[in-house]
Structures are given as structure tokens and as C-alpha cells.
Records
---
Amino acid sequence: MNLALAPVVDDDFEAMLALRIEALRESLERLGRFNPDVARARLRAQFRPEWMRHLVRDGERVGYFTVEPREGELRLQHLYLTPAAQGQGIGAWVMDHVKARGLPISLAALRESRANDFYRRHGFRVVEEQELDIEYRWEPAP
């Protein structure tokens, strides 16, 4: 498997929205909260190509992630993979890439999403439970 990162440009919005919807649909439907219009508005509000990278496997885009730099830490805003690309080590590869920056990382995961198990396996600890999301934090070793 050949993994690479590719830059995001403004024209990528629609393709990234489709990928986000595909990745989140099952979890959101289970919670009765699937709404394509809300998905579009949320991605539009957080669409910052300079913080985003496509995940490319063997020449095909299979996901993307967004890392927002904050003072003294990073915020992982998005990590979405197509369902066909999940469970193949791509998410772990991203975690290694982001953790290599050596800064604390915060993120939120949708309740009842399989992502919660993924983040816990990668050393994130729960810092707050909200109605729809669970907030996590990872700290680098001193």
C-alpha cells in the first residue's frame, strides 16, 4: 500500500463533502441526526485548505484530515476515510503523522461512532462527554 498526502484546494469542496457524508452517514443515521444540509454547512464553516490534506492510496483519494494549529496544541477537526479504506491502517498512519509534530492533540468524536474505539486505541483519553460528541486529548510523552 502506497500512502501519500496531497494538498487541498477550494475546488475540492464538493468531493470532500461527498466523502464526509459517506464516512459519517451510518453513525449519524443510527443517532437519527443525518442531514446533508447540516453536513454541508459544517464542512463549509471549517473548510480551511491550508490545514487540510487528502489521503491518497495507490493514486486514489480515500480520505482527508484537517489539523488546526492552536497555541501550544493541535486540533484534529476531521479524519474521514471512505468505508472501503477503513480498517487498513490508514488512520493509524495519519495518527503517527500528526503525533510526530510533538504537540498535544484534541479532537471530538461522534457518540456511538466506531471512531471512539480507534482514538482510545491510539492513546487518546476522554476529557469531556457531551450530548452528541466525546472530547479527547492526547499528550506526547515528556
---
Amino acid sequence: MPTEKKRYGMVIDTRKCVGCMSCTISCKMENGVPFDGFRAWVDMKERGVFPRVKRNFIPKLCNHCENAPCVTVCPVKASYINDDGVVLVDQKRCIGCGYCIVACPYSARYLHEGLKVADKCTFCVHRVSMGLEPACVHNCMGKARIFGDLNDPLSEISQYITKNGVQTLRPDLGTNPNVFYVDAEINKLPNKGGK
């Protein structure tokens, strides 16, 4: 039985990701993300030795951490966690100082040059509030992304986590991410831009 308070999260099953980048493109289109900014991206790494080479795809985004370092460093309280556990930026309060961008251990934030504010994945809260999935989930051709309420043990995401071994990015940091991965060597891959 679900609890009254929701806690949104996402599972990315790397066994199903084909590296099509539809998550990146749909996110940019849905949210007006500028060309040089990313709310969602896909890291790639080739493993093995020719002729036995395999390319691994690891989709990434804001991890919507319960202990989000980006929130604690914001000097004007523009970064915050809403009632559903989604980490957001109040663009009217943000002064574009970049503290949160530097504090994010997942390289999930960038400075929106046009707006002069920090920007990042919002789990498409505007879509979720209307009963829709985030754009990246809706447009994932491999159905590698599962989104939902982590507090509801009957939700698709909770059932998926129960049935599949999941891991998070950098568990050693104690940020308690709400984005989980299935079958990924995620901690051996660089963040976007090789960071």
C-alpha cells in the first residue's frame, strides 16, 4: 500500500539502452535546453579488444539526491527539494553564481547562458503533475527508463527494483540518489566531458 507522501525516482536498465540519444533529444525539445547544455546525456565506453569489443551506454541525469550537495551550498536558497523528493532550481531566485554546479558530484548542472541561471533535470515535473511520464521516459525506444513513486511498493519502479539488482552512482558520497541503474559499471565511466 502506498504512503501518502510520494518520492519520485528513476531506474535505468542499461541492458535495454541502445544508445539512440532519444532521451537527450526529447529532453532538449521538451525543456528548451540550449545546444551547449544538457539535462540528460549518454556516456559511452568501449570495452574489450578487437574483434571482441562491446560498447556500453550509461544514460545520465540529475540524481535527485536526498542529501543533495547542490542544495546546501546555494547562498540564496534557489536550489531546493520539493515535497515529492525532486531537486529543483527556482529560476527567479537563482543568481547564477555556479556554486551548485561545482558542488554536484555528478556533473548534472550547467549554467543556462540565455537565462544566466543554473539548470538541470527536473524529472519533467510539469508533465508529471499532469499524469504524464518525463519526456526521456516516454521517448525511450528501448524502454530502458522506469519512472515512478519509490514510496509505493506496488509501483512499477518499486517492483523493478525488487526484481533486479540496482546500483547508484558514487554511493560512497552519501548523497542517497533517487536514480538507480541495472547492470552497469557506472563508477568506471567518466562524467560528461571526461570529468
---
Amino acid sequence: MLEVVVLGVLAVAAASLDAVLADGPGPFREAARLLVLERRTTPQADRLLARIGAIALPLAAALAALVVPFGGHAALDGRVGVVWFNAMEVVGWAAVWLVGWGANSAFALAGGYRFIAQGLAYELPHMFALITAALAAHSLDLRAIGAAQGGLWFGVWMPVAFAVYLLSALAMAFWGPFGAPLGADIAGGAALELPGPDRLVFLAGRYGLLAVAAAVAVPLFLGGGGGPVLPAWLWSLVKTCAVLALLVWTRRRLPVLRMDRFVQAAWIVLIPAVLLQMLVVAVVVVD
């Protein structure tokens, strides 16, 4: 369970960095503000569904963290770690949609459906990027995939798959250019009607997903814990922090994409590009 604790700390660090970049209140001050907000609800809201969704988001992040290796060790036997990670990501889909649906609010529901549309756009490129790394290592185990990069990181000779994974990591956490599900144009979107404590849990899950996605990028494309001098677990942590900082930075530097344009780009550009990358990897592996 140490992996879950480490990624929880990284999620708090991501929230702190985001606050610094936005010149806003720190995560602990914001948490205190949300905890004392007066509860509110909309008429005929399904508060149970909304609360289940808010809780399910950080739960999905925590369960995904169980297969993340730090120095070759993972909390769960991750022989199908890639599949487990992807499955927990789908739980996040359901969580955001439940939050939007349960509020019985037009804006919140629009935010929930935006995330479903976003998921349908990014999920196939995301899956193909995962499969490309697994194909090169002949394994679905994140530890084995990281160990297979002793000579050359997959991110170097699979740049398209790596780029697609980073984009899908942002979309998975509805972050930065993919923040439309919580967009200001729909008054805050899916989380609009969440009361303070529930909103705090929901946002914690969002940062948790971002941290887990950054951590999984390390064994997939950055050589896992491989590196000179430092122990493997520390290399994994350093690489994870670097990826996480990059993902957090995008929120203040890139505009939010219109959903229809992202869907079009995903199906016309990303899927063919990552399929071509997979074909190249398959030819290299067979040879």
C-alpha cells in the first residue's frame, strides 16, 4: 500500500504546484474552505448517486495505484497491470457521469456527458498506446515493460505512442486542454452542484488520477526505475515527478479544446498515427 501513499503525496504536490502557477490558495487552505461550505442541493437530486460518483473517483485512482511499480515492486501482482490500470480508468468515466447525472442539473449533466464524449474520443488511442508498449515487452506487467527498456527507453523509439499517452493522461483527468467537463462555459460542469466536502473528495480524485497517470508513464515509456547511481525506487519517483510537473503545467498554458474538434482530431489523426506506430513496433519485434 506504500504506492498508494506515495501517489497520494504526489497528488497533493500537484495541487500545490497548480495553486502556485495560478497564484491561488494552497491545497490545504482550499480544503478547509470546502469543508465549511454550507451544503446545498437541487430539487429531486439523487444525492446517493452523486456521492457514489464523488467517492468512486479517488477510489479508482487508489486502485490503479496498486499496480504501479516503484523500483520493481508493486502492491498487487501486476501480471495484467496494463489491463487493471485501464479498467480503473473506466471506473473514473462512470464516476464523473454519476456526479453529473445525480445533481439533476442541466449544467452538471452536460459536464457528465462531455466527459463520456471525451472518453470515447481518447480511449481508443490510449488503449493502442498501452498495447504498443506491452507488445514491445511481450508482457502486460508494468514491471516487465519497464525492465525491457534496459537499452533504449520506449519513449525514444515510440514517440507517437508516448505523446498519445500523455494526451490521454490529460483527458483521463479532464485536465488542461481537456477540462471541458468542468468548463466555465457551463458554470463548472459536472461538479457544479456538489457540496463542499463532496467536491473536495471529487477534486482529490482528479489530482489522484493525474498522479497515477504520470506514474504509469514511467514503466511504460521512461525505463521504469532504470538509471545510474540512484536506487531504482528513487529513479521511478524522480521520473514520475517530472512527468507530473509537465502535466500540471499544461493547465495554465494550453487553451481548453472544443469537444467536437477533439473528437474529430482523435478519430482522424490520433488513431491512425498510433496504429502506424504499433505496426512499426510489431515489425521490429518480429524481426
---
Amino acid sequence: MKSPNPQLALSPIQREILVGGLLGDLAIYRAKATHNARLYVQQGAVHKEYLNHLYSVFQNLCSSEPKWSFSLNKRNNRTYETLRFNSRSLPCFNYYREVFYPEGIKIVPANIGELLTARGLAYWCMDDGNKDRGNFRLATLSFSRNDVLLLIKVLKENFSLDCSLNTVKSTQYRIYVKANSMVQFRALVSPYFHPSMLYKLQ
């Protein structure tokens, strides 16, 4: 969907990063069906460099800089710092709200194979991935089994990556990029990794 103002439309790079990020921690909200959608990004203090990088990517669509917030965990009485920012509510986000949240809960869109690029994969991995011994683990715990199987299929078809499904609980699943695909996987995503997140590949 096009925005009336070209400066408020998503660039090709922004679209790639948005798709990958939405498979991870990025979120899109819409107050009402008649309203435009907006992007919401939050990271813990430890990843403030990465969040500031994401802000630089979407800065032209935002009206305010990232802000700190503090929350108290009553279980351990510790205060946690997070850094967050919102975009403006814009037509350019409406399509992504519709395909990722058709019923109000985030899913994997049926056309994710057409949307996910190597750059998008890198941002998904920076958000929700970690090296696990000789493999790379993607935390897809909020997605259904069918959604996770679709992602595994896309990783195979789009990037020729050998992946497996890991059941954490009866309704929670993770994806493992297998050791035999790690050389190819690193070659795909490392050019797009922010320096502060490269530790996840090491």
C-alpha cells in the first residue's frame, strides 16, 4: 500500500528489515481498524546499540527519538531498563499489520517466502537467534507448529539451509539451523549483522 507522501513510504531495505524484524521482536500496532498502523520497537539496555541502529533505519518515519523505560520485576525485586521507539501511524505499515496480524495475534504470513530475504533473515536472527554449540537456534516459541514448519520450508527453498524443528513444550517450538549449513548461513547473514550483535554468530 502506497503512502501519499513518498518520504513516508518504506524503502526496499526498510521493507526487508521490517519483515525479518517482525519474525522476531518488532511489532506493529493499530488502535482501530480505521486508523493507520505504527511500528513499535523495544530492546533491553544491553542491546541499546542495536536499537539505536534500528531507529536510524526507520528514523524518517518517526517523530520522536528512542526513550528509556523502567520496570520492576516483583519476583526478584530487580529494575529492568528498556529502550523503545514508535514510528508515526502511517499507511505504509498497514499491509504488514494485515498480513502478520490478520486476527490481532502475530502469525507467519502464508507469503513469507516472497517477503523474506537474506537481509531480513539476518535481522530475524539478531532479534531471536543465538549460536547453540555447532548450530544456530531461532526462538520461534510464539508461533504455531504449522507456522514454524512453513519457516523451515522457506529457509530450505530460499536459502538452501538445512533446519530442524525442536519441541520445547507441547505448543512451543524452535528452529535449529544445522551444523552442516552453518558456513553457508554465516555467509548469508553476516554482511547484514550489526557489529554489536556479531557475538551471536561466534
